[in-house]
């Protein structure tokens, strides 16, 4: 069925009091962002609901995109007919026909903002109920938990009918919680953490450390590809790549093996904090899950966290690996994450890193390197890119290959 | 030249050859190499795999490349036997399978596996009821072809799938070498199938390349062990030019499947309707939905199959005795034998097999030659 309009119901944000208007505006912009390549669609974020006028755009595609946008509780595609009872009746029959199964139950739910048109709310329910009962052999009216609810909205510009409601992505509109820096390695956990941060309204900027020639171009491409996957939820994401080779070499040369990882993480965190401060970020997000690896014990977190007072948020901290993998599969990052390119976290990983690093000793060992100088040099080499939905990095020859296949 | 032996092999499509040659000359790195050049080959490999998976509506990871139909059949049969030997050693198959399946079964029989060969009816089809009756607690595999390579009959795959719904641990293998692109993909890709064999050169891809579909979560042991290619299931450096060529050939095959099938059916119908009324002709293929559209098997009583083949060849028309694989061994067709056709008739059987490029004009030319030869053969078989 070709629909004319999609009605979007807001999630939690309806309860947000005075911030409501800015939340709704932000959601409207996010919706426009994921639909940027479908210019026919007009987005109207009204104060109780959002209406998307399709103007002939493919409703299935628009709904697929909408299903990813946080801050939406559910949405219903609707068909518009002129203010004419006969047209309403026919459309109601057509819509029920699409889902009809013998023995099913239904109800009519009418709302009117146009009080001049023909039947009253109650009369409309009654009349359309009769129309449906006459048109189908084995269908029954049921008010509670009916199989099908046919919604009818009588407005000044026409009558809108819908029979299906799809669950949205829930959460809060991305951006309403402020900006955070996401430490994205390329593994399974950090994309999931980024997704969860976005779900609670955070606008994330990806910070990725790369160490050529110890890490390959593919590892960087993979992180960018993962970012592109995550743009499905926001429209676009800033990707910040930080050169980390020199720092890793220095640490490897001067710090005892057991503390390599701890000092390295402290340097990464300092760099991320510096970027957050420069870019008005309010916090740092990472993919740490408690107890998963050596750097993710409470002791390690204490020793690493020592370099900043900025909040470090760990969305997957209490999740089991399998739970994280389930989400990764759901958001389609898993297959990318398991591509076997070494990232900066795995190179130089000592065979036995300290799982319980001592804070004082960490500070002491760290003095052997020129922390300030190294930070400055790395920050000077930072490169930023804006990544948009649909961009591809890992397999850039795709178009060339398309001619071969 | 009129080529009516497409079930033996097909001509490589020009654009497929172009792909083969371009890839051989420009993307000849090893997909397993770490450097960029190898990476490029890896990307093309995976994009080819993706295209094949998309065309068939399956997952990327469910497509595994092989050297062709024989390897695919051997792999699924023996790989299942190895993987599931602790659970049972009984296998069910039909009595009309291609030798790649049949002889793999025979080899397993020598190793102590028990094989049940299901009988077929006069159309060469097994019955789902027989499959059900043959199932035992130790059955590990049911292997049935989609389309018989000698007479073209389509096996009742959906009915077999329904029977096997109640036995989720039994591997269900379909040899679809003759079935791809013939309008029966809903039968082949049924809800229950676990493994499917395909061969590239039967649809205008180069020789020496094929693939299997392996349902996610269903395991078979590798036969080729080594460098760990194909997710450690089929080692050996990938034949990338042929794989890319095959991905293209499959796209070409499936793009106009409906039109192609209708065309093949029309061409075959033209021949079938012409020859069916000759008193000494016996038809083994019919024009109904129990048969694939591209195969016509018939016999002219009293004339050896190879004589008919050579007689047509003198008119530049290429057909085959029932299957190319056994044709040089002077054996009576095993499918026809299983269909209980007497030897004296089955030795007279020949097969016409079409592809989407054959035309009605070619069918008419064939019919003319047929009339002429039929008259000529009267001298020896009256």
From TrEMBL, chain A:
Domain of life of the source: Bacteria
Classification via Pfam families: ThiI, ThiI_fer, THUMP
CDD domains: PPase_ThiI, THUMP_ThiI
Keywords, comma-separated and alphabetical: ATP-binding, Cytoplasm, Nucleotide-binding, RNA-binding, Thiamine biosynthesis, Transferase, tRNA-binding
Matching InterPro entries: Rossmann-like_a/b/a_fold, ThiI_AANH, ThiI_fer, ThiI_N, THUMP_dom, THUMP_ThiI, tRNA_STrfase, tRNA_sulfurtransferase_ThiI
Keyword RNA-binding: yes
Residue ranges the record marks as coiled coil: none
Signal peptide: none
Pathway named in the protein's UniProt entry: Cofactor biosynthesis; thiamine diphosphate biosynthesis
UniProt keyword annotation of Endoplasmic reticulum present: no
PROSITE patterns in UniProt: THUMP
Residue span, THUMP domain: 60-165
Ligand binding (ATP): 183-184, 208-209, 265, 287, 296
Localization in the cell: Cytoplasm
Entries under PANTHER family matching the protein: TRNA SULFURTRANSFERASE
Function: Catalyzes the ATP-dependent transfer of a sulfur to tRNA to produce 4-thiouridine in position 8 of tRNAs, which functions as a near-UV photosensor. Also catalyzes the transfer of sulfur to the sulfur carrier protein ThiS, forming ThiS-thiocarboxylate. This is a step in the synthesis of thiazole, in the thiamine biosynthesis pathway. The sulfur is donated as persulfide by IscS.
Protein name: Probable tRNA sulfurtransferase
Organism: Furfurilactobacillus milii
Taxonomic lineage of the native organism: Bacteria, Bacillati, Bacillota, Bacilli, Lactobacillales
